[in-house]
Each structure stands twice: as structure tokens, then as C-alpha cells.
Amino acid sequence: MRLRRAFLVQAVPKFGSIAGMIDRFDRALLNIVQADDSRTAEALAERVPLSPSAIARRLRRLRSDGWIARTIALLSPQLTGRRLRALVFIQLAEHADQRGKERLQRRLNETPEVQFAYEISGNHDLAVLLDCPSMDDFVALAEELFASDSSVHRYETSFVKREVKFAPFVDLDPVGD
Pick from 67, 86, 91: which is nearest to 157 by CA? Predict the structure, then answer.
């Protein structure tokens, strides 16, 4: 009996881990669909040892459980290559109140030209990637978002010359069940 209890305790997933919530088949599927979500269940079954219907059920569950947040289409550089992209590093005012910070973050979330916004550590408080059709559009947007906001102490901008790598992929190691 003592050995059985020890075995059961060991079977409990480590706190904060995803073990027990998704299995190695789920992780294998998630790794594949991160790179290409357009594959059919039949094509996925060639890489994951499950039937197409089991794969379809798992993908529906992964979506409904929130493991797959959304599916997007990435546009070709042929369509986006001539646009101006700017990394903006924002330093908030020393005495910026929480409401001012929340208003700025809400405006960033609501602005379609903002591709990402991260709260960061270090000399700056936020890092933002803007995508604009032109320099004039960037200047107008930076004035609207940052220069006129009293919660922004200062901001620095670096312009993207070319994309070297873009791979928003998280490897969910299927080993370790």
C-alpha cells in the first residue's frame, strides 16, 4: 500500500506545468500547427500517429480550451516590404499614475498600426512595434500616441531596415510524458 501511495503522488503533475493537461500528441500537434495551421487532419495524421478524426477532435478541444489562442495569416513581404516599421522604446514619467499607464496601454491595444506592445524591464518601460505606410504617417501616429501623452516621459525609435528572422514559434517538447 505504501508503494502505491508513493506512485500516485509521483503521478501528480508538477505545479505550474502543462503535464497532465495536454499530452505528447497534443504537443506534437501544437508544434506542427504553429508553423502551418492550414494542414488538413489527414496531412497531420501523416506526422502524428493518430487517426484524422482523433486529430480533428483534439484540435477542436485545444481551441475551445484556449491552448490555441487564434489562427492568423502572415502576409508575404511582397505586400508588406515597402512599409515603414519602427521599434519604439517608451519610458514612462516617474510619477505616471496607474490610470495614465492603463489609458496608454488601452490606446496601444486599440491602434491597428501597433503590431505588438510589451511591458519590459530595464531603462524603458514599454517596447512597441509600429507598422505605418510612410514616415509622415509614423510621425503623426507617434505624436498622437506618445508625444502628447503626459504619462510618457520620453521615447526612442529605431527603424527596421530588413527582417532577418520572424518565427513566433514555441517548441513544446513532446518528450517527457
Answer: 86
* Domain 2-64 grouped into CATH 2.60.120: no
Q: What is the mean pLDDT of residues 114-131?
A: 96
Cβ atoms of residues 82 and 134 within 8 Å? no
Cα-to-chain-centroid distance, residue 40: 24
Checking if the pLDDT of 166 tops 90, the result is: no
Q: Which amino acid is at 34?
A: Q
**In this predicted structure, what is the pLDDT of residue 75?**
85
> Which of 138, 115, 141 lies closest to 127 in space, CA to CA?
115
| Sheet strands side by side (includes 84-92) | 114-119, 126-132, 84-92, 152-159
Other CB atoms within a 10 A radius of the CB of residue 160 amount to: 14
Question: Domain-by-domain residue ranges, the chain?
Answer: 2-64, 79-159
**pTM attached to this predicted model:** 0.76
Q: 79-159 — its CATH code?
A: 3.30.70.920
Q: What is the DSSP string of 82-140?
A: TSEEEEEEEEE-TT--HHHHHHHHHHHHH-TTEEEEEE--SS-SEEEEEEESSHHHHHH
Grid cell for residue 138: 509614423
